[in-house]
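Data card: per-record layout.
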Amino acid sequence: LVVVARDGLLFLLAWEIMALAPFFLVIFDDRREGVRHAAWVYLAATHAGTVFLLVMFVLLANLAGSSDFSGYAKALHGHPALSSTVFVLALIGFGAKAGIVPAHVWLPEAHPAAPSHASALMSGAMIKLGIYGIVRMLTLLDAPPAWWGWTLLAAGAASGILGVLYALAQHDLKRLLAYHSVENIGIILIGLGFALVAVQQGNLLWGRLALAGALLHVWNHGLFKSLLFFGAGSVLHGTGTREMSRLGGL
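The structure for this 250-residue chain is written out next.
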């Protein structure tokens, strides 16, 4: 529903259903205090992002006079300041779902707590809808000024570098994979940011290549991260531990 919605109200409704469902997946083993804590951290983070999306869609609906996406594009045409406001709101709101630094705090909490097949769904598919939301809003906005692209590049670089540094310091297998997702979201954002900078400078070929690379990595990460979490779940099921220092000789 999130992907096919062409109405802001339907989009928000579907987004909220998508936000609530993983809460129940994360808190599945609710007898453990750490699991309950992780679930509430996830719920707080995802609804903080939803607040920004709600403000964005209310602003767009008031401007367009309807909640239809096609009306948003027409209403924003020729309004660069409003387009920039929508871009910032979308980046924060969707970025919280995607796990962009510093809105990544829920990932290393939720993934170790959730069942491994739920982690595969959340990291392989759900966080990509944060990227989808950013890309979809970009298609409705006017030609991007240079700072949009540089902002995405900076956010991507921060997520990529910090994600891999945090991952290297982990001993919990699933927590490592969670930070690895933060890193890969950063890589995708770098591609999107480079595409916007290239388009703004009139270099459409490089813009298309960068966008294609970013979208390819959305599919790439969705496939391999799901398999990695399934693999981690298999290791946990077979050994009873996620502590990598105790997993030698497998």
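Known properties of this structure: The mean pLDDT is 89. The first helix runs from residue 8 to 26.

See the next section for split statistics.
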